[in-house]
Amino acid sequence: MSSCGLAMVPPAKNVVLYRNGDPFFPGRKVVVNQRRFPTFEAFLNEVTKSIHAPLAVRNLYTPRHSHRVAELGDLQDGCQYVAAGFEKFKRLDYLNHGRKELRGTSTSGWLFFPTFHSCRNTGSSHTLGCFYCSVFRNGDLLSPPFPLPLSKSTPLQWDALLATLTEKVDLRSGPVNKLCRLDGTQVSGGEELVNGHYYVAVGNEEYKKLPYFELLVPQDSAFRTLWYVD
């Protein structure tokens, strides 16, 4: 190939990719080389493997404004993007490693921590009086679980918790009416929630027993470490 032909090949781009809805994933640097990835689909397939996505990556979004990337040429060198499947974009502060949820909120009677800086899942969480659960959407095997940080020192009002879950989960069936363990048994109150455990938000429909944990929690994700916290 002539030097003129080589000059026409677009230069490689370095981008950082985050997993959609994963507030603990630190991001993975990927080199976009058109020789290696002749099509956008080939690049998405590589991204799926690179970030160990639970399902095939089919969409890329800008982290701040959730603009969808349509083709390789839209990627900008040195920029960050959020990799997703067919599920909707999850609004997290990905550029700060996702530890600050953009939709953090608090309600009377219980406290939802909007930041993860002081209440990360470490030994200090016990002394700070906070703990974490992770919540799946009933029947949804496309969306990863989201973390639910709660206060140990503030009594949980169950109705307020369900109302906030309704806002965050956005179930197709409507409001969240109950929270179930992975075996399908129903949680009746906040005192039954266990630090580091996984739950499923359910609406008016029946609980759907599916392999949520096995399919939606990557093996190397920090979400899996939550499972073993006592």
Automatic annotation (TrEMBL):
<dbReference type="GO" id="GO:0005815">
    <property type="term" value="C:microtubule organizing center"/>
</dbReference>
<feature type="domain" description="PI-PLC Y-box">
    <location>
        <begin position="78"/>
        <end position="116"/>
    </location>
</feature>
<feature type="domain" description="Doublecortin">
    <location>
        <begin position="135"/>
        <end position="213"/>
    </location>
</feature>
<dbReference type="Pfam" id="PF03607">
    <property type="entry name" value="DCX"/>
</dbReference>
<dbReference type="GO" id="GO:0005874">
    <property type="term" value="C:microtubule"/>
</dbReference>
<dbReference type="GO" id="GO:0004435">
    <property type="term" value="F:phosphatidylinositol-4,5-bisphosphate phospholipase C activity"/>
</dbReference>
<keyword id="KW-0677">Repeat</keyword>
<dbReference type="InterPro" id="IPR003533">
    <property type="entry name" value="Doublecortin_dom"/>
</dbReference>
<dbReference type="GO" id="GO:0006629">
    <property type="term" value="P:lipid metabolic process"/>
</dbReference>
<dbReference type="GO" id="GO:0035556">
    <property type="term" value="P:intracellular signal transduction"/>
</dbReference>
<dbReference type="InterPro" id="IPR001711">
    <property type="entry name" value="PLipase_C_Pinositol-sp_Y"/>
</dbReference>
<dbReference type="InterPro" id="IPR036572">
    <property type="entry name" value="Doublecortin_dom_sf"/>
</dbReference>
<feature type="domain" description="Doublecortin">
    <location>
        <begin position="13"/>
        <end position="95"/>
    </location>
</feature>
<protein>
    <submittedName>
        <fullName>DCD2B protein</fullName>
    </submittedName>
</protein>
